[in-house]
Amino acid sequence: MTSPPPGPSYILTFTAEDRVGIVAATTGFLADRDGFILDSQQYADVESGRFFMRVAFTPAGRRFPADLATLRSDFAAVAEQLGLEWTIADGSAPMKVMIAVSKGSHCLNDLLHRWSTGALPIDVTAVVSNHETCRALTEWHGLPFHHLPVAADSRAEQEARVAGLFHEAGSELLVLARYMQVLTPDLIARLAGRCINIHHSFLPSFKGANPYHRAHALGVKLIGATSHYVTPDLDEGPIIEQAVERIDHRASVDDMIRIGRDTEAQVLARAVAWAAERRILLNGRKTVVFR
Ligand SMILES: Nc1nc2c(c(=O)[nH]1)N[C@@H](CN(C=O)c1ccc(C(=O)N[C@@H](CCC(=O)O)C(=O)O)cc1)CN2
């Protein structure tokens, strides 16, 4: 058989304490069940002694399990033996993503354009915002918009509504597309780490608010953007993707903000695509990204 058979694809990702035979056991499991490997990537982190793997595969014969539940229960036995932390996802199903935004629409606009043209393997479940600014853009795409204002004495209630909308719609990922509110540890725990942010600087420089103003004051020659998982510590979560642009002494703060918008949108779109394709695995405070 030369070319992969048409049909559903599945994505196995796992991490484990590294040892001999993990790859052989995994590919043997697939071979014994007529699993046709479409893409396979692995990485051994010698520092942590952890092993990481992503395999995309498709059914290619009668021995392949009848459904995803059976595939998972079959693999559970192998995973138990090898001590894997694993998931098998339906590679044909778009990831359900809820997007949060404040006033800046450039990252939201870019994500919705890519989604609407089929360039991003996601389903947008809703857009939530603490301002009304992006309602028209969202509803133009025929998507639900939820205005959830925040005040110092209503943060817990507001976050409970964010979490409620997230779970009610079966969302799998919350994307902070320039959402300018610090999430509390409680909400992050309720999201179980399924939250990605775009920060408008080349982290770890210029964490927090107004990074372009602070960068301008120091006369930097490179500005950037960083997409990272959200943790309780502001702008300190595991980094997924970064990019930079060169500027010079002539660049005003407004120039930096204008140049940065494109970089932010592109970095966030790549991070969301990789998350939706199950290409990102956590490695302590870092990530492994099988691009
Ligand atoms: N727990 C976390 N929450 C959020 C993170 C994060 O890393 N951990 N990233 C931010 C986004 N962000 C920068 O990328 C950011 C957002 C907000 C602020 C800030 O100082 N906000 C002020 C209010 C500002 C306003 O109302 O406009 C505040 O919350 O008091 C700094 C950086 C998203 N959330």
Characteristics of this structure?
291 residues, Alpha-Beta Plaits, 2 domains, seven-stranded mixed sheet, four-stranded antiparallel sheet, globular, binds the ligand Nc1nc2c(c(=O)[nH]1)N[C@@H](CN(C=O)c1ccc(C(=O)N[C@@H](CCC(=O)O)C(=O)O)cc1)CN2, purine biosynthesis, one-carbon metabolism, hydrolase, formyltetrahydrofolate deformylase activity, ACT-like_dom_sf
Fold and architecture overview:
The active site is at 235. The protein is α/β, with parallel strands linked by helices. It has 2 domains: 10-90, ACT domain (Alpha-Beta Plaits, 2-Layer Sandwich), CATH 3.30.70; 95-289, Formyl transferase, N-terminal domain (Rossmann fold, 3-Layer(aba) Sandwich). The protein contains 8 helices and 13 strands. The strands form 3 sheets. A 7-stranded mixed beta sheet has the order 7-6-5-8-9-10-11, with helices on both faces. A 4-stranded antiparallel beta sheet has the order 2-3-1-4, covered by helices on one side. A two-stranded antiparallel ribbon has the order 12-13. The longest helix has 24 residues, at 253-276. It is globular, with a radius of gyration of 21 Å. It binds ligand LMY7XDAE. The ligand Nc1nc2c(c(=O)[nH]1)N[C@@H](CN(C=O)c1ccc(C(=O)N[C@@H](CCC(=O)O)C(=O)O)cc1)CN2 is lined by residues 176, 179-183, 188, 197, 199, 208-209, 230, 232, 234-235, 237.
Largest sheet: 7 strands, mixed
Could you give the count of β-strands? Answer: 13
Overall pLDDT confidence: 96
Percentage of residues in strands = 25-35%
Q: Provide the number of structural domains.
A: 2
* Helical stretch tally: 8
